[in-house]
Every structure is written in structure tokens, then in C-alpha cells.
Amino acid sequence: MRIGLFGGTFNPIHIGHIKVSAEIKKAFKLDAIYMIPSATPPHKKSKGIADARDRLEMTRLAVSKLEGYNVSDIELKRSGPSYTVDTINQFKKTLSADASLYLILGTDAFLEIDTWMSYKELFKMLPFIVMSRPKKSSIVTPEQLESYILNNVSESYAFQRQENRFVDNRYRPIYIFNVAPYDISSTDIREKIKKRKPMGDLVPEKVENYIRKKGLYL
Ligand code: ATP
Whose CB among 20, 90, 192, 213 lies 3.0–4.6 Å from 197's, allowing a Cys bridge? Predict the structure, then answer.
């Protein structure tokens, strides 16, 4: 069983999250994707962040009809900040021994990973899949990614061009994956809602209805 863990604030979940994770699921032949909304995001200012239960519900609505998608409330059930290292440890305990886990994240999140709790541990725990992201990461070149990894994780990571991944004998591989560009962010969506502009097709219809019904982000 190959499982992708895709965490985020999902404030709100948008089409970009869905499209890129579906592309990764296919490319890496994953059997399942677990979407994991964070409870108390340690990295984002809590102002403007919808209640975790609303973000969880919107995530459920967005993926309910998608095959192989699950939504985990693991971070909402813990108290205190949502540290990824705790989430992965918890996942490892509940899944069968033959399950292989992958951590999926965008370049913008990856380039802040040195601020995450016990981040070097994470690179020992599971392989990473780092997806390209337009706009937010437009300044990120492969060389910059490489120097970030060498400076912050391990200087013995080496790039394997054919596999498009960095390998190191003490750490798990870091895959670099160029997904189709979706220039969409939750910030843009929140701004549109505040300005009473239509959300267009940036969020699934059920999520838009939920946002309107609850009056979120106004
Ligand atoms: P915000 O605008 O509030 O910062 P966001 O759109 O970045 O939100 P998050 O919930 O923070 O959404 O993102 C969760 C994960 O999904 C992160 O790893 C982020 O890099 C990735 N991600 C979000 N949108 C995209 C996108 N359009 N393309 C590729 N990766 C994305």
C-alpha cells in the first residue's frame, strides 16, 4: 500500500490542491491520499483562519467523490500545535507494516521546512515529494532547491537526474516533481470572498456553497 500524506491549512481547500495531488497520486502510483487539515497551524497567523472543523468539513466535501482520497482529523484530535512529525508518528502506528508513506508538499512550504519542529527527523522518516508551484515559487530554481537541501538538511544529498530526486544514505529520498501549474492559492480565494467577487471554478461547488452558507471569510 502506497500512501501520500498531504497536509495543509486548507483555508479553504481549492482546485489547485485537488489537481496537483491527483497528478502526484497517478505519477507515484499511490493507492491512497490522506488530506490532513491542520488544527492550529504553527506557521500561519491564526487571524483569518477558519475554524478547524469548518476546514475539515470543506476538505471532506471536496474529496468525497474522489477515488482513493481520505480526510484525516488526526491533527484536530490532538491538543496544541499541529506538528507534522507527530502526525507521521501517529500514522505509522495505525497503518500496516508494509505501508509506504510519502509526504507531499509544495515548494513554498518545503523552503520553510527548517522552521518545522524536528524537521531533520522527518527526512529520516519518509520520502518527500516536492511539487512545483507557480507564482509563490517562481523564483525557485533547481539550484536554489539543491542549495537549500544541502545547507539545511544534509550536505551529502546528491541529485539523481534520471529519477529527479535527491538521495543520501542517512536520509530518505526527496523527489522533485513538476506538476501542471495551477496559479491558485487560498489567499486569493479569501480575498475574492471579502471583495464579494465570485469564486469561479477555483473551489469545488460544494465547498463554495458551504462557505456561503456559513458566511466564512467575509
Ligand atoms: P495560503 O494562500 O493561505 O497560504 P495555500 O493555497 O498555500 O494557502 P495551503 O493549505 O497552505 O494552501 O497548502 C497546502 C499545501 O499545498 C502546501 O504544501 C502548498 O505548497 C501546496 N499547494 C497549495 N496550492 C498549490 C498549488 N496551486 N500548486 C502546488 N502546490 C500547492
Answer: 192
